[in-house]
Amino acid sequence: HTTVSPERVTVRTMFGGTRFAWDDVRALRLDEKRWIRAVLASGKEVALSAVRVRDLPRLSAMSGGRLPDPNAQE
Description:
Elements: E1 2-4, E2 8-13, E3 16-21, E4 25-30, E5 35-40, E6 45-52, H1 56-62
Antiparallel strand pairs: 1-2, 2-3, 4-5, 5-6
């Protein structure tokens, strides 16, 4: 599963996990199964377990504004 805090993202899987700071996230990518992947500064992509497109507004809020809210009106 994916745990999000204002400082970092932690992704746990059956075989381990990954932790990274919000400042390391360069982009989010929607994969072919409609799951969200974080693209890190290193170029590595990390699948955000259990995070779907509908979760993007909450993910944006938890990022402290580092990720734009796709539902925000301009």
